[in-house]
Amino acid sequence: MDKLRVVLSTNRVVPYTAALHAVLGRRVDLRIVTADLGASTVVGYRQVLREMPRSVLPGVIIAGDFGRRAAYGAFLAARRLGVPFVFWTDEFDPQPPWRDRWLPMASRRFMARRADAFLVCGARQARWAAALGARPGRIFTFHYPVLDWPQDAAPRETGSATRLLFLGRMVVDKGPDLLVRALALMTELRWSATMAGGGPAAGWVRQLIATHHLEDRIVFQEGWVTPDHRQRLFQSHDALVLPSRQEPWGIVATEAQAWGLPAIVSIHAGAVEGGLVDGRTGLVVSPLTVERLTEVLADVVQHPERVQAMSKEARLWARRFTVGRQADVVMDAIRHVAGLAQR
Question: What's the pTM value of the predicted model, to 2 decimals?
Fold first, then answer.
């Protein structure tokens, strides 16, 4: 029996989506078309029709990056062909950047109400999709999968200073400045920190470290972090800090837990709902203020036994974020809409 043809329209393929695509490609006849964020509705429409001729119907059309114009083109192609349509999105900001490249909110509500299913990352985005008009019974929640898993877990060095890690783009939304300011208030405690990543705010963060005279406590590694270096950072630290002002999910939090690092995460990151267990696999910083972040970090630094206990829980918890389990959710959505089409 021929596999079901599934056409996925997206603006780019990143490592986690590529891993999911590889698994899905063994289960369905997956065709991927890409168009950048500025691509028009017509481009998205024509791309999908080329990969979904009537001779291969029935099929399913999925569009990623909900709200971009090419996704609307994929939506129109599905309606012309009479095949089920699924949105796949990790956006929950009602006013995203690049507004000139995105559809007006009214158009997005129109599509949300008519989509046969919605694939979203995390509970927060599920609520956002429902608020746009997506039917609750058609919202399928997946999570970013962890791609790199440790072969074994080296025990933390007894008696060493707590080693904190910030890993991500140096942008204001990630809150690297909040971490520096919090650490500046706890210089009497035993800790060291590494801040790794590149981005437009890197120079500002470096200057902030110097302003607070923390060069001997914070190792600043500017630039792209390779997968191998990423693994070494996870292996050589005790806890991850993600003090984001805004974060659709925060995949680094689930990756860190897989390596046994409790994740200290801002309330504004989507990962606080389903990506960690507060007090068991990590800690949620709420409200996100320098003062509150300082309190949480000071408690972590002064109680290394809690870090060790959370480390064990974190590794177990992270097992739910395998590529296979997340691909199962995507397949559930595909089977759901394919079943609706056959009724």
Answer: 0.89
